[in-house]
Amino acid sequence: MKHIFITLICLSIFSIPCFALPSIHYIAGVSEFIKYNEYTFVDLTANGDDALNHGDFHAAETSYQAAYDLAMAKKNYKLIGYALFGIGATLGAQGKYDASIAKLKQSAGYTNYIEDSAAIARLYFDLGVSYHFLKQYPSAIENYHIALGYDHKEYWIYLNLGDAYVDTKDFDSAIANFSIAIVADSTSRISYNDRGAAYFRKGDYPHAISDFNKAISLDSVYANAYFNRGYAYYYAGNYDLAINDFNISMSLDPSNTDVYKIRGDAYMNIGQYDNAVLDYNSALNYDTNNAELYYSRGLAYNEQGNYALAIADFTYAIRFDSSYTSAYFNRGLAYYNENNYDYALKDLDHSIALDSTNPIAFNIRGLVYFAQSNYDQAIADFHDALRLDSTYYLAYQNIGIVYHKQEMYAQAIESYTRAVNINPRYLKGYYYRARAYKDNKEYANSIADYNKVLALDSTDADAMAGMGKDYQLKNDKISARLWFEKTLQFKDKLTDWTVEDINENLKTLGK
Fold this sequence. Notes:
Blueprint: H1 41-53, H2 57-74, H3 77-93, H4 97-108, H5 117-133, H6 137-150, H7 155-167, H8 171-184, H9 189-202, H10 205-218, H11 223-235, H12 239-252, H13 258-269, H14 273-286, H15 291-304, H16 307-320, H17 325-337, H18 341-354, H19 359-371, H20 375-388, H21 393-405, H22 409-422, H23 427-439, H24 443-456, H25 461-473, H26 477-488, H27 499-509
């Protein structure tokens, strides 16, 4: 019988949502700052404001340009500044960020003529937004601070400033600014949501969840808050709660297809591999060239024992990302589980060439060499795994298995002992050492180790059967029969022994 002597770890790459785009976008509202209708300027800018707010960028730009032309003709520098402000905001709203910055900087050149500090604050705020979208965070932060110098009461300036700090990974500054935004407007769901996101990125999941709770209490249909709280629950290890939030988020916003990937990951972590596959299928319907999605679905297939489909998905992942180390590793593992050792070895070699610091890869390659009866190379790989992680008790166990296979019982016992010394609660380590003691005719030591197994798991049928065999070899027929009969009470838990084996031994013992 072939055994895999490791605990497989699913290594998936989870996508952290981008929380920190500017929460508040461009605000023009030029006409509200004009005290009286100079040369019909208010009418023109009001038309621009209305068009901008309704997303009619062509009409907005036309109106603001007409206002600019009128202001230039009249040589009214204050109105020139306002008109440029409107044009800059409109360009930014269309995603023309460089052009927006140019116009807004021109407008900033007229701030000496613009007497309203709220208008100037809004101008620098919009300038910060353009830099923010260009991911030029220091410039965004600088302009948000300038805006605050003109108007420190508007919560949305603090809100965007916090978002920019999140993008620079200065989470404490982000949280401080979101907190000020909350004090300025305690009814802002966005402020709580974004502060929760900052706590999440900082790794403070309890505070993150608390803020997402508050955002949801302010707006019970706030899809983003449910989605973000799901992420926080996920990383806190509360997968069932995460799945529930992802379900609610999806019901409120079916367009958010990002839910499928992370919900699939949550299903993976609770062993619901069928549901995970369904979610990865849905995600792939929207993103057919995503290496990570193929990789994740491959992990699910691997866990289901559907190695052929797993290999196909890992192959797709590698096709889209030829340096995907984990895909080579897990495809090699799938080949190993299919007894295709040559292909397994090729993939594990590739994985180790890409990342020679992963002890698990050396350990798995050692198992492949062991399956090929290349015992020296197997032991060399297990030692390499231990070189990278001296606490990797599974590698010591596997060294013991190689020695045991070669009937080198003393060396096997020594290796098993090192494994259980590192992890005294590792049941299999005692079990394998017990078998080595038995094969070395040290029955008392073997029985002692089986007792240690049963102290950790009183229903371990294989340990009971092993105990019975040891007593049989010691000619203690009464104890042997007792343990074989007890084994049959837990026959459904047998893995190394069969019921036929137990009955045959009982028959040999006689009455």
